[in-house]
């Protein structure tokens, strides 16, 4: 399982196509804004949800097996109990990795994916990790390009002549 910054950075750098299972068309859902963020940062997003025909302007598929193109990552916005069949589908379509979102932990499914050669990430948000590792996080949503535990020094006070 990938759980370190270097491994996450490498996985995100090697990934180009992300199938987002459980992607909602509702703008206020975490799956929507995570997928939108990744789409805006150059990733090909493939929505997988039988409830929709299209999400974020992308054709939506009812299942992973219905996706007609290669997938690098399967990003799972589903409950932990739903992960084992998704791992089976990810293996069947030749995906390279399975990413389980925040709060989604299924150790048995992770072991099965790894045994089949897939990289696995659990209990992390792809959007948060991308922003953290590639310079998109900052106070109040400002992209400082730098992540640090130290507060920046205030600007010098103006001098009076």
Concise structural overview:
This protein has five helices and seven strands.
Describe the 3D structure.
The protein has 161 residues and is α/β, with parallel strands linked by helices. It has helices spanning 5-14, 30-40, 83-93, 107-115, 126-134, and strands spanning 17-21, 44-48, 54-55, 58-59, 73-76, 97-100, 119-121. The protein contains 5 helices and 7 strands; from the N terminus they run αβαββββαβαβα. A 5-stranded parallel beta sheet has the order 2-1-5-6-7, with helices on both faces. A two-stranded antiparallel sheet has the order 3-4. Helix 1 packs across helix 5 (126-134), helix 2 (30-40) packs parallel to helix 5 (126-134) and helix 3 runs parallel beside helix 4 (107-115). The longest helix is centred in the first third of the chain and has 11 residues, at 30-40. The protein is globular, with a radius of gyration of 18 Å.
């Amino acid at each position: 399982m990938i759980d370190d910054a270097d491994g996450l950075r490498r996985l995100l750098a090697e990934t180009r196509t992300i199938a987002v299972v459980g992607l909602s068309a509702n703008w206020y859902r975490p799956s929507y804004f995570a997928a939108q963020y990744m789409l805006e940062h150059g990733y090909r997003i493939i929505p997988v949800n039988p409830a929709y025909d299209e999400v974020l302007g992308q054709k939506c598929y009812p299942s992973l097996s219905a996706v007609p193109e290669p997938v690098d990552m399967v990003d799972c916005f589903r409950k932990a109990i739903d992960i084992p069949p998704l791992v089976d589908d990810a293996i069947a379509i030749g995906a390279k990795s399975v990413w389980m979102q925040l709060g989604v932990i299924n150790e048995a499914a992770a072991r099965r994916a790894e045994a089949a050669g897939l990289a696995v990430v659990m209990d992390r948000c792809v959007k948060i990790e991308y922003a953290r590792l590639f310079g998109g996080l900052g106070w109040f949503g400002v992209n400082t390009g730098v992540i640090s535990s130290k507060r920046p020094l205030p600007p010098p006070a103006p001098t009076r002549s």
